[in-house]
Amino acid sequence: MTELPHRTRGGLSVVPGGGDRRAAPREEPAPAPRPTPLTPGTPAVLGSVPGPELVPPPRLNEHWTDAQADAWLAARDLVGWRFALDRIHKLLHALGDPHLESPAIHVVGTNGKSSTTRMVAALLAAHGRKPGAFLSPHLTDLRERIEVAGSPVPPEAHAEAVADVARAAAGVDQPGDPVTQFEAHTAAAFVAMAEAECDVFVVEAGLGGRLDSTNVLGASVVALTSVDLEHTALLGDSIEAITAEKVAVVTPGAVLVLGADLSDAATIVARDHAARVGAQVITAKPEPLDRALGAAYQARNFALARAVCEAYLGALDLRIVREVARSFTMPARFEEVATEPITILDGAHNPAGAVALAASLGEAGLKRGGVAVVSVLADKDAAGIVRALSERVDRYVLCDCGSPRALPPEELAQIVRQTVPAARIHTIASPEEALTAARAAAGADAFVVVCGTLALARTIRTVTGVSA
């Protein structure tokens, strides 16, 4: 593999392995139980397209626009998902190991990862740090996944980081085994955060943990938000197996912070892994100030973020914490996008998220009789989502979110009929028309909730004029 010239910052050469850096964890103690599909020797492959046409990398001194960077990343999306750590380690090494330039906080779990990651970054920034954050997925633009001090990385910085990664990937790609989009964007996030001189990286895991491409950090603090049945073909078909995959990112000497409402099954596995690797365990404790976040699930996420920052920084300034709690916002997380009737937009895309959403609707005084605008991706538990929503909703307007992975509205309607036979159902392909119909059906006194996938949330935020 051809080595790239070392990046420089402030006149100092950034040399792989040089300086005061921690070694990335290359081998982890095997968590038990471990599901068989994700074994390092036979990485799982999802959604790949044979022989995708990959965009060539830029020449050494060529500067890309953000559009060119997006085109390169879009081509990498056709590679599919392949779970292993060898490519990301090679890619980061070719880039000068930017992931080791600052200490890290790693956020894993089923639901609440993005909110918790942003909350941790906001608390750190308010306490004088310069955090970088890597999140997924995004609402409107891939660039949203990389934040510096609370704002998306500038287009030119994003393009430059992706161009660096593209040049490095040319030396890592192998026939039939190229760098994936998520691996590439993970590496670009580390490059961009390092170039911005962030002093702490707050990183959200993509899927699972053990073989997720973010598992290169050896983070000093790890947050486990929640664990529910998800991606069972890849992560295992039990809470215990899925938890083992997620907490495998915890390394010796780290602090593992558990969400306050983590199940007993997940807690036992998490504590067992921490004991085996010599990590400390803390459980987040909700406080009254967390209620400023509105939705009950966001209050729990904020309690976890506080505990993470306390583990990282020590004692926090409660005045600053209260201000962050009052001012924090998160797109498509119990977001009120219209009134008369109240219209709530939420990214809930699995049964656990829908349960939390239904509970938050009730706590907000929206008890029964609501109208739901729903689109669900085909690989999600649509019946579980609908069943949870039925606690608050009795009418469903089913639409097409525009994703090729979405269930057609007619198929979703069949699932709703089987799950909630008494529900009133309408299918309207256009999300904009579906929202209009739902708001008309609700009248001024009921409410509308939009959920099922972030692809639908993206469209509805545009329709309602809410900025990303």
Percentage of residues assigned to helices: 25-40%
Report the β-strand fraction as a percent range: 5-15%
Strand order of the largest sheet: 8-7-6-9-5-10-11-12
Shape field = globular
- How many β-strands, per DSSP? 18
Question: For the CA atoms, what is the radius of gyration?
Answer: 22 Å
Number of helices: 15
| Top CATH class of the largest domain | Alpha Beta
- In round numbers, the mean pLDDT is 88
- Write out the CATH superfamily name of the largest domain: Mur-like, catalytic domain
Helix-and-strand structural type: alpha/beta
Instruction: Please indicate the count of domains.
Output: 2
Low-confidence stretches: 1-51
**What's the end-to-end separation, in Å?**
40 Å
CATH topology of the largest domain: UDP-N-acetylmuramoyl-L-alanine:D-glutamate ligase
CATH architecture of the largest domain: 3-Layer(aba) Sandwich
Give a short summary of the structure.
The chain has 468 residues and is α/β, with parallel strands linked by helices. The chain has 15 helices and 18 strands. The protein is globular and about 60 Å long.
Description:
- The protein is of the alpha/beta class.
- The protein folds into two domains: 26-327, Mur-like, catalytic domain (UDP-N-acetylmuramoyl-L-alanine:D-glutamate ligase, 3-Layer(aba) Sandwich), CATH 3.40.1190.10; 335-463, Alpha-Beta Complex (Protein-Tyrosine Phosphatase, Chain A).
- Helix content is 37%, strand content 14%.
- It contains 15 helices and 18 strands.
- The chain has helices at 66-77, 86-94, 113-126, 155-169, 181-195, 232-235, 239-247, 264-277, 296-313, 318-327, 351-363, 382-389, 409-419, 431-442, 454-463, and strands spanning 8-9, 12-13, 45-46, 81-82, 104-108, 131-134, 146-148, 151-152, 200-204, 221-224, 255-258, 280-283, 335-338, 342-345, 370-374, 393-398, 424-427, 447-451.
- Strands 8-7-6-9-5-10-11-12 form an eight-stranded mixed sheet, sandwiched between helices. A six-stranded mixed sheet has the order 13-14-18-15-16-17, sandwiched between helices. A two-stranded antiparallel ribbon has the order 1-2.
- The radius of gyration is 22 Å and the shape is globular.
- It starts with 7 loop residues before the first strand and ends in a 5-residue tail after the last helix.
- Residues 1-51 have low confidence and may be disordered.
